Each structure stands twice: as C-alpha cells, then as structure tokens.
Amino acid sequence: MSEKSIIQEARDIQLAMELISLGARLQMLESETQLSRGRLIRLYKELRGSPPPKGMLPFSTDWFMTWEQNIHSSMFYNVYAFMIKSQSCRGVEAVIRAYKLYLEQCPVPPGEQPVLALTRAWTLVRFVDSGMLESAPCSCCGGSFIAHAHQPLSSFVCSLCQPPSRAIKKRKLSDNLADMFPQLLNEQEKRVV
C-alpha cells in the first residue's frame, strides 16, 4: 500500500480551496485533485456554508457558440492560450490564472454571476484540447474566437463584427465614460446625416 504524501495532500487542499472560492463544481475538484469525494464535500461545506450543487457538468459545445457566451469564452481562452504559449504556467494553474484575469476584465456586479463560470471555462479548455472546439480567426477583424472544430475558417465572422439583431436591442447604454464616446459619435453622425 502506497503512503500518501502529506505535502501533496496539502497542495491538493490548497488547490481545492482556491477552486471552490472561484466557484468550481465538485466534478472539477475531483478531476484536478487527489482528495476523496467525502473530503471535498466537507471542505466545500466548510468554505461555502452549504453542500456543493448537484447535477451533471455542462457537456454541450453549443453553449459556447451563442453571441455573448462566445465573446466571454474567447476572451478567457485567448488569455489561457497566451499563458500556455509563454510557458508561465500549465494545466489547472493556467486555467485559474486566466480565469482571474477574465474576472478582472469583466467585473461582476454584486449578487450576479459571471457570464463564464470557472467550471465552464475549464470545460472549454477540455473541449478545445479534445478537438471539439477550436480557436479560429475572424475574417473581418482577425481576432481569435471560439468556433466549432472543422468548420470552414475562411468565412468565419465573430459575433462582435456581426452581432445578432437581438444583441443590439439588449445592449444597455453604459454610464462608463470609455463606453460613451462611441455612443456619442454615433449620435453625432445621425444628426449630420
């Protein structure tokens, strides 16, 4: 019988605590640590004050293709890919760092959930690694966006260059000064024409 390393167990507990604080589901914790399910549940209850949510992990690639989710997923994945290419970190550490940067760039109002949850971000990386999804260049802006694997790339247009009509209707006017300049310019152009 092999004896478990106390140092490895401490690392796993620290990793599990960080993942739980970022909103990881139990299945992700089980996959990324060597801790038993019972210990993970107890740790989750201790940190969150409630048991982990039940249910299956997301398994459909279609979620990542809708306009808003695609933009957020692409932003996260580009940061993740940069970290992997620069060799600053690997595996779940790269997912955690990229996700924290994503949250910095897309702050979540109090009481709301981010568009891209940590478990979905982790699932996205697994889908790309398995060849179900890929990062594809937009033929208009040249940015890299998440797309279904094996689709013709020459005609791919991202959802920023070609948003669906409902996306424009849903957009709220922002109070942020940086967001107001394009809106003000559009209003001035309409007045001139």
TrEMBL record:
<dbReference type="Pfam" id="PF05280">
    <property type="entry name" value="FlhC"/>
</dbReference>
<dbReference type="GO" id="GO:0003677">
    <property type="term" value="F:DNA binding"/>
</dbReference>
<keyword id="KW-0804">Transcription</keyword>
<keyword id="KW-0969">Cilium</keyword>
<keyword id="KW-0010">Activator</keyword>
<feature type="binding site">
    <location>
        <position position="158"/>
    </location>
    <ligand>
        <name>Zn(2+)</name>
    </ligand>
</feature>
<dbReference type="InterPro" id="IPR007944">
    <property type="entry name" value="FlhC"/>
</dbReference>
<keyword id="KW-1005">Bacterial flagellum biogenesis</keyword>
<dbReference type="GO" id="GO:0008270">
    <property type="term" value="F:zinc ion binding"/>
</dbReference>
<keyword id="KW-0282">Flagellum</keyword>
<comment type="function">
    <text>Functions in complex with FlhD as a master transcriptional regulator that regulates transcription of several flagellar and non-flagellar operons by binding to their promoter region. Activates expression of class 2 flagellar genes, including fliA, which is a flagellum-specific sigma factor that turns on the class 3 genes. Also regulates genes whose products function in a variety of physiological pathways.</text>
</comment>
<dbReference type="GO" id="GO:0045893">
    <property type="term" value="P:positive regulation of DNA-templated transcription"/>
</dbReference>
<dbReference type="GO" id="GO:0005737">
    <property type="term" value="C:cytoplasm"/>
</dbReference>
<feature type="binding site">
    <location>
        <position position="141"/>
    </location>
    <ligand>
        <name>Zn(2+)</name>
    </ligand>
</feature>
<dbReference type="GO" id="GO:0044781">
    <property type="term" value="P:bacterial-type flagellum organization"/>
</dbReference>
<keyword id="KW-0963">Cytoplasm</keyword>
<feature type="binding site">
    <location>
        <position position="161"/>
    </location>
    <ligand>
        <name>Zn(2+)</name>
    </ligand>
</feature>
<keyword id="KW-0805">Transcription regulation</keyword>
<comment type="similarity">
    <text>Belongs to the FlhC family.</text>
</comment>
<keyword id="KW-0966">Cell projection</keyword>
<feature type="binding site">
    <location>
        <position position="138"/>
    </location>
    <ligand>
        <name>Zn(2+)</name>
    </ligand>
</feature>
<protein>
    <recommendedName>
        <fullName>Flagellar transcriptional regulator FlhC</fullName>
    </recommendedName>
</protein>
<keyword id="KW-0862">Zinc</keyword>
<comment type="subunit">
    <text>Heterohexamer composed of two FlhC and four FlhD subunits. Each FlhC binds a FlhD dimer, forming a heterotrimer, and a hexamer assembles by dimerization of two heterotrimers.</text>
</comment>
<dbReference type="GO" id="GO:1902208">
    <property type="term" value="P:regulation of bacterial-type flagellum assembly"/>
</dbReference>
<keyword id="KW-0238">DNA-binding</keyword>
<keyword id="KW-0479">Metal-binding</keyword>
